[in-house]
Every structure is written in structure tokens, then in C-alpha cells.
Amino acid sequence: MNIAELFEEKSCGIGYVPHKTFHGVSLKHLVTGGATGGDISYHLVKVEPFCSLETHAHPAQVEVHAVLSGSGEALVANRQTRYGPGTVAVIPKNAPHRVTAGGEGLFILATFSPALC
Fold first, then answer.
1. Residue among 52, 55, 12, 28 at smallest CA distance from 116
2. pLDDT, averaged across the chain
3. What whole-number distance in Å separates Cα of residue 46 and Cα of residue 106?
4. Comparing C-alpha atoms, which of 98, 61, 63 is closest to residue 83?
5. What is the mean predicted confidence (pLDDT) over 65-83?
């Protein structure tokens, strides 16, 4: 069992929420700002095969991606990075970024500071 499957099994029935903007992307809010005084939040991001988090930026947050399973690519501030299990990427505040899943889909543990929600 990989770590993404472990999150699935241990999530106590808390489901994914479809992303409001990006088709084929859903989020599972693991730790929200309410539990951390707004300092940090953790989200499991599920990107279906060949779907994308299109180019966007977070003006107030630093975002860290830890790839749990799957494959894909990220473009962060015009720098291309291959995503696979164990890849970690730091996305500075206000840096435009895009993530596209490969044929396996992609599971990312996304950390935001300060908290996204």
C-alpha cells in the first residue's frame, strides 16, 4: 500500500471536494487553518489522469508539494519539473504555477503557509 492509498483508507469517510475551477482535480482538507491558528494547512490533491491545475498563483501563501504517488509535470515560474513519488517542490508566494498529471493521475500533499483555508 502506498502513502496515497493509506490516506484514502484512514480518512474516516471524509471525502474529496471537487476543485471549484479545475476539472478533474479534487481536494481533501486534512488540516485547516482553524486547527493551526491560520499558520498552516495541509491538503491532499488528487489530479485525475491527464488533467491539470491550470496556471494560477497564491499571492499570500508559500505552497509546498510533496508527491505521494503518480506522475506528471509542474511549471513553476517558467521552470519545468517532473513530478513523481518523493518529489518535493517549493512554490514561492505569487509564483505562477501549473501541474499536469500523467496517465496514472497524481496525488500531492500540498502544504500552505499561511493556511489556505
1. 28
2. 90
3. 6
4. 98
5. 96
Rounded CA-CA distance 84/57 in Å is 22
- Residue environment code for 105-114, b if the CB has 16+ CB neighbours within 10 A, otherwise e: bbbbbbbbbe
**pLDDT score for 12:** 44
Maximum pairwise Cα distance, the chain: 38
Q: Is the pLDDT of residue 112 over 60?
A: yes
For the record, the C-alpha cell of 17 comes out as 471536494
Contact residues for 37 (Cβ-Cβ < 8 A; gap 6+): none
pLDDT tens, residue by residue, 29-68: 999 999 999 999 999 999 999 999 999 999 999 999 999 9
End-to-end CA distance of the chain: give it in Å, rounded. Answer: 29
Closest to 100 measured CA to CA, from 79, 78, 71: 71
